TrEMBL record:
It comes from the Bacteria. This is Phage T7 F exclusion suppressor FxsA. Pfam families: FxsA. One of its GO terms (cellular component) is membrane. It comes from Blastopirellula retiformator. PANTHER family: UPF0716 PROTEIN FXSA. The keyword Nuclease does not apply. Keywords: Membrane, Transmembrane, Transmembrane helix. The chain crosses the membrane at residues 5-24, 30-47, 72-91.
């Protein structure tokens, strides 16, 4: 984890600054500055429009009774793209724009889902009326329609006032 933070907070800004200085020396410094500003503005507008479209898609999926897992992943990746595009730099802009393009975002999303399934295991526990249940024991509980049916009848019924 420390290595990842080292890369994120030290190496990436160093590489970005080096690339910006190289671009400024190869072209015009004003062009480089304009490029950074324009990509930030265009990227934030794209992220905003795609974010709203994804938000509407999430609402539609919720209202139809489906879990919007795919759309939620899109929303997270669009948010990350917006953050990367606001950050000045060439590598962050290229990464941010690649996350905003749907046909490039799809394989990235598939890889992240596969990575998450490999590295994370989710369990839940709950207590209902004094009985503890957990998601890992859910496969051991009888499923609806598979349990034994008992016939019974009411012997005495009282109506309470």
């Amino acid at each position: 984890m420390l290595g990842i933070l080292l890369i994120l907070f030290i190496l990436v800004p160093f590489v970005e600054l080096t690339l910006l200085l190289f671009l400024a020396s190869a072209t015009d410094p004003l062009f480089t500055l304009a490029l950074v500003v324009v990509t930030g503005v265009i990227g934030s507008m794209l992220a905003k429009s795609q974010g709203f479209a994804t938000y509407r898609k999430i609402q539609a999926e919720f209202s139809s009774g489906r879990m919007p897992t795919d759309s939620l992943f899109d929303a997270v990746l669009i948010f990350v793209a917006g953050v990367l595009l606001i950050t000045p730099g060439i590598l962050t802009d290229m990464t941010g724009f690649s996350l905003l393009i749907p046909f490039l975002r799809t394989p990235i999303k598939a890889w992240l889902i596969a990575w998450g399934k490999k590295h994370f295991h989710v369990t839940t526990n709950a207590t209902v009326d004094g009985f503890a249940t957990s998601a890992s024991s859910a496969s051991q509980t009888p499923q609806p329609g598979s349990s034994e049916i008992l016939e019974s009848y009411v012997v005495e019924s009282r109506k309470e006032d």
